[in-house]
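Before we proceed, please read the two lines closing this message. Tell me what the token row says about the fold.
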Amino acid sequence: MDRIVGIDYGSARVGLAQSDPLGVFASPLETVPTAKIIEYLQKYAASETITRFVVGWPTNMDGAPSEAAKDVEVFLKRLEKAFPGIPVTLEDERFTSVLAHRVMIDGGMKASDRRDKASVDKISAAIILQSYMDRTSGSVASFDPSAVPDTLSRKAGGKGKRKK
């Protein structure tokens, strides 16, 4: 199945995410030691068709590349050498770690589990990938409450209270 792979590259670990086959939703995949990332992606590519890599691009608040961008540039060369036919897109990764922590809190994850940096990395990769897919799809899925039929709304049954 066709997949887009999101990558949150770090000097110690790399967070990975994958798209669904339709390229609509991103989900965390794995966190891999940096030294083994190309090998992991080659094994992944043996079972899934990778149509694109979306790599988080570290930038400062002013939009200029941060110090970590140098490490990402080295990784990009390795990635393009290992997968010459697969396009690579850079996606701004500012605030993804903060957003990942917020997702974990909102999802009810225990504080002890939120300290696991591997979880933060793969959730960050999913945020990077979802950001790319939302930006390039031309529309972002949203909920329209007026689309809910009256039979499903609380108003249809009266005051919304359950019968005793």
In short: The chain has one domain: 2-139. The beta strands are 2-9, 13-19, 26-33, 49-57, 88-92.
